[in-house]
Specification:
Blueprint: H1 2-27, E1 31-33, E2 36-41, E3 44-50, E4 59-62, E5 65-66, E6 69-74, E7 97-100, E8 105-106, E9 120-123, E10 125-126, E11 132-133, E12 144-146, H2 147-153, E13 164-167, E14 178-182, E15 202-208, E16 240-248
Parallel strand pairs: 3-6, 4-7, 6-8, 7-9, 13-16
Antiparallel strand pairs: 1-2, 2-3, 5-6, 9-12, 10-11, 13-14, 15-16
């Protein structure tokens, strides 16, 4: 009788392990969504790797919704821990910047550690009402994170003010008139141009260096100001402001 109970117990354990393995194998079937490969994670999905298309990109944009999938975290142990494997990492040699459009928990701080050319992570936060918050407090614009700080502190541990600001340049309530922020090395060109803003009854006519739109910013030739170093040899913060020009539509 005792041996029979042991046999039933062993069979039960085997069935349980088999079920777990089947569930794990099923969860490893990644779904492709744009630049990313996703895995089911609780009520949403986790970004587990880049798609073939994503591995060709210099800039990646991580939203809480990607092609209808609710993104709840970056990297996940679901589907791998039963085999003792390490969580997946991105190994892109092309990727230079990652834009987090709102806070998404990163379960694996080494997710971008193998991206040797990754320099900065630009972080935007979404407000409770769904509008973008481009300011972290009263003084600083929501900001970029250095790769080394991301790996050491996670991307909320150490933030720096972004040095390129795009202004909608008319009276608006959303995010204090900001359309976009970015950060580049001083003296360098702006390589990513954000999507054109829209305004009812007006046509967008490019980005200008002054609020009254006298001189258009030339993305092919214009550069950010050269670095000014302080007594400790660190760059002094300089903000480059770009302003949208609008032309009223004729009816």
């Amino acid at each position: 009788m005792r041996n029979k109970r042991r046999l039933v117990t062993k069979l039960g354990m085997c069935c349980f392990m088999a079920a777990m393995i089947l569930m794990t194998l099923a969860s490893c079937g990644y779904k492709e969504a744009g630049d990313f490969l996703l895995e089911k994670a609780g009520d949403g999905y986790a970004i587990m790797d880049l798609s073939e298309e994503g591995y060709q990109k210099k800039e990646l944009f991580i939203y809480s919704q990607i092609e209808g999938f609710n993104i709840v975290r970056i990297s996940s142990s679901i589907g791998v821990t039963i085999f003792g494997n390490n969580p997946p990492v991105v190994k892109s040699q092309i990727l230079e910047k990652v834009y987090f459009i709102n806070y998404i928990f990163c379960e694996n701080e080494a997710f971008f550690a193998w991206c040797n050319n990754l320099k900065k992570i630009i972080y935007f936060e979404m407000g409770e009402n769904g509008t973008d918050l481009f300011r972290g407090d009263e003084d600083w614009i929501m900001q970029f994170v250095k790769k080394e700080d991301y790996l050491q502190y996670n991307y909320l541990g150490c933030m720096y003010p972004a040095n390129v600001s795009y202004y909608l340049n008319y009276e608006v309530e959303n995010h204090d008139g900001y359309h976009w922020i970015d950060d580049y090395d001083y003296g360098s060109k702006i390589t990513y141009i954000p999507e054109d803003p829209t305004r009812e009854g007006y046509i967008f006519d490019g980005w200008y260096k002054e609020e009254n739109c006298l001189n258009k910013w030339n993305f092919e030739t214009d550069t950010l100001p050269e670095a000014i170093l302080d007594e400790e040899g660190e760059p002094v913060y300089q903000e480059t402001k770009l302003y949208a020009k609008w032309i009223r539509e004729s009816f």
